[in-house]
Design a protein that fits this description.
- This protein has 11 helices and 32 strands.
- The protein is an alpha+beta fold.
- The strands form 7 sheets. It has a 9-stranded mixed beta sheet.
- α8 crosses α9.
- The longest helix is centred in the first third of the chain and has 18 residues.
- The chain is globular and about 80 Å long.
Length: 551
């Protein structure tokens, strides 16, 4: 990274605005400063303004949304460096820090969300106007970064201001999270490449392994489309596409390749026009994908999700995904199960969770014998909770291959969702539906094998595995579920357990129960069970057994 210092002013001379929480804190600091001024000369010596207005611009043309507090850079076009202009009231030691916020690191506590310093440069400057420049390396991942100027004169308190720098990649998202075969869809793209080639991929049937969290591999479907993008280098623009009329239900992604080598992705779920005779529906957690999306659309340097800043209670589901457009942990939590479906020849109808809300319980039960929730379905609407519970009460079977499912309620408004509360705090504990509920998370620090304890009560689950009570299989963790003493159905059976994985009494439990309606409900009890299904033959056989028993 290049950090340089020159005298002068950038092209944009307007002051950077202060908004939201930062604005309130800044105003509070100003009030505190006035209070210090009233206390006498000693206090006034430490309350004088040192660092004056900070503003930023790039060394090329602005991208839409750029202003005094935000600029866009692109390492392969003319926008290569950010110029931060500020004034000093007197000589000071000045530090320019480039910070990466907690995007991509989920946290439920704001205090644990940190700003990581990627680069710092400290210089001694005199009174007057100055410009510090930052040129990121071409290998720096596309996203927003905070550029902070800190100044200190003699023994005075440190004073800081910041702006935001967006490193632009190929940011893209479909206006729709899902569509049916033959439907038109709109792909909205933000990039300053000269040309972009779009190739649709079907994720799951491919045999090539995926090693990175920021890529989607798949089988190409349809012909590639190359678009001249020179007229759209300063603002986002749409690309009109059509879902293939013969595309099977599944997870697809647009792979966008710029002529300069940058790559982006945009997922799209294709669901059937009407239920097919498969009798099995797989539900993809698109709402939870949106909650864990750390893409910073508003340009404040933080991901637009409550996992980055807890006071944000609403997320826009139409924004691009961070990590080059790939849903958070798709490779770890979703892809393995997609591969298993393809390798075992399973034919299923696949839906986004919001698609399922269009059904009535009776219609869903008439169409399907089994609903499978393979990934992390943490955030669900009341409509979805009601539907799945009603489906079960009509005899529909359920399979949950992750953990921390149906944990929090969200309300859907248009193309966004708003966080409401935990379902158990709303009087509706998830264990009453799943048989288990969320216990704890340690983000994968401790993992352990399941120990079979229910081979005698559910022998069908372990046929062909060679496992009996006391046998172990796999290695799981990250987040775990277990029965609730008060709310799990009384006949919930533990099939396997990872005893005390997160400490005494904090065990993972794989469970099964039968509802009075005749419905059968299986819960894996560990977050990465479905995502790692192909790592152990015994685990694959367990899933095959459960699938056949419930389907």
């Amino acid at each position: 990274m290049s950090l340089t210092s020159v005298r002068g002013n950038p092209s944009d001379t307007q002051p950077a605005p202060w908004r939201g929480t930062r604005g309130r804190l800044f105003a509070a600091a100003a009030v505190g400063g006035a209070w210090l001024l009233a206390r006498g000369p000693a206090a006034r010596a430490f309350s004088r303004r040192l660092l004056t207005t900070l503003r930023v611009a790039n060394d090329g043309a602005p991208f839409v949304g750029d202003g005094p507090s935000l600029t866009t850079l692109s390492p392969v076009t003319g926008r290569t460096a950010a110029r931060l202009a500020f004034g000093l009231e007197r000589s000071a030691i000045v530090t320019l820090s480039i910070l990466e916020t907690g995007q991509g690191v989920a946290s439920e506590k704001p205090s644990t969300v940190a700003e990581t310093a990627l680069r710092e440069k400290t210089v001694s400057l005199t009174r007057g106007e100055h410009v510090l420049s930052w040129q990121p390396p071409t290998t720096l991942p596309p996203r927003t970064y905070i550029a902070r100027i800190s100044a200190q004169a003699n023994r005075e308190p440190l004073q800081s201001m910041h702006v935001v720098v967006r490193v632009l990649g190929v940011d893209a998202a479909f206006a729709e999270r899902s569509a049916v075969p033959g439907a038109p869809v709109t792909l909205v793209v933000r990039t300053d490449a000269r040309a972009v080639t779009v190739q649709m991929l079907r994720s799951g049937p491919e045999t090539a392994p995926t090693y990175a969290n920021n890529e989607i591999k798949g089988i190409p479907v349809g012909d590639p489309l190359t678009v001249d993008w020179r007229k759209h280098s300063n603002a986002p623009a749409p690309i009109a596409l059509t879902v293939g009329s013969d595309w099977p239900s599944g997870i697809y992604a647009a792979q966008l390749t710029a002529d300069d080598g940058r790559v982006g992705f945009a997922p799209l779920l294709v669901h059937p026009v009407a239920p097919t005779p498969t009798r099995v529906a797989v539900i993809i957690p698109t709402s939870t994908w949106g909650a864990y999306n750390f893409y910073d659309a508003n340009g404040d340097g933080w991901g637009d999700t409550w996992y980055a800043r807890w006071h944000t209670m609403h997320v826009d589901l139409t924004r691009p995904h961070a990590s080059r457009g790939v849903p958070y942990r798709y490779r770890s939590y979703d892809l393995g199960f997609q591969h298993w479906l393809a390798q075992t020849g399973k034919e299923v109808d696949m839906y986004a969770d919001e698609d399922l809300e269009a059904f009535a319980p009776a219609d869903l039960r008439a169409a399907y014998d089994l609903l499978v929730f393979p990934g992390h379905t943490e955030y669900v609407t009341e409509a979805l909770f009601d539907l799945v519970e009603g489906y079960r009460d009509l005899g529909g079977n359920l399979m949950f291959l992750s953990a921390n499912n149906f944990f929090r309620r969200v309300d859907r408004t248009g193309h966004g969702i708003s966080l409401i509360d935990e379902w158990r705090d709303l009087g509706r504990p998830e264990s009453s539906l799943l048989g288990v509920q969320y216990v704890a998370s340690d983000r994968g620090q401790r993992r352990g094998p399941f120990t079979v304890v229910g081979a005698d009560v559910a022998p069908w689950a372990f046929v062909g595995t060679g496992l009996g009570n006391g046998s172990t299989f796999g290695k799981y963790g990250i987040e775990i579920d277990a029965r609730s003493e008060w709310f799990s159905p009384a006949n919930t059976q533990v099939l396997a357990t990872i005893t005390d994985l997160f400490g005494p009494g904090r065990s993972a439990e794989m469970t099964y129960y039968e509802h009075p309606s005749g419905a059968k409900v299986f819960s894996a009890g560990a977050l990465d069970f479905g995502g790692q299904i192909l790592l152990w033959p015994q685990t694959q056989q367990i899933l095959e057994n459960v699938w056949q028993y419930l389907a």
